[in-house]
């Protein structure tokens, strides 16, 4: 790190992403500064492949660097997505972390939760998954969905959207720390 206390930019103002970032960065750093910014991914509302989600993360990082002019040590981009397989359609997320001084990127992926068929069949690249879930699960309030995410609704709170990004970021940041310890980034 350039600073004793790293300055971190999160390319989102989403509450689940902020919560996950604060939790995981608190494990890695005794003190840090976190700025949260609305940054476009330039991909669909609900990416449907690893490639599209990772491109979205990279674009968030690029757009942050081009548009915000903040001096930071780490830039974090988080992107949720769905993937359709022969076994069903799954929801999960990616974390991409850029160590600014070295230019190196570190990646982490979350666990996956299977979408019910009626939700999977209603997916659209131009519709937010959360809007579809509110349409399909009429007993779920917008407040509960904001708090739990689709993951939390589908798992009865056992695996929330914050947990999804917590896992992905834990993998990305852990990889960076391991590399830093071995190579003195």
From TrEMBL:
Record Pfam families: NTPase_I-T
Domain (Non-canonical purine NTP phosphatase/PRRC1) ranges: 11-176
GO molecular function per UniProt: ITPase activity; metal ion binding; nucleotide binding
GO annotation, biological process: nucleotide metabolic process
Xref: SUPFAM superfamilies: ITPase-like
Record-listed E.C. numbers: 3.6.1.73
Catalytic activity: ITP + H2O = IDP + phosphate + H(+); XTP + H2O = XDP + phosphate + H(+)
Keywords: Hydrolase, Magnesium, Manganese, Metal-binding, Nucleotide metabolism, Nucleotide-binding
Name of the protein described by the UniProt record: inosine/xanthosine triphosphatase
Organism this protein belongs to: Edwardsiella anguillarum ET080813
Organism classification: Bacteria, Pseudomonadati, Pseudomonadota, Gammaproteobacteria, Enterobacterales
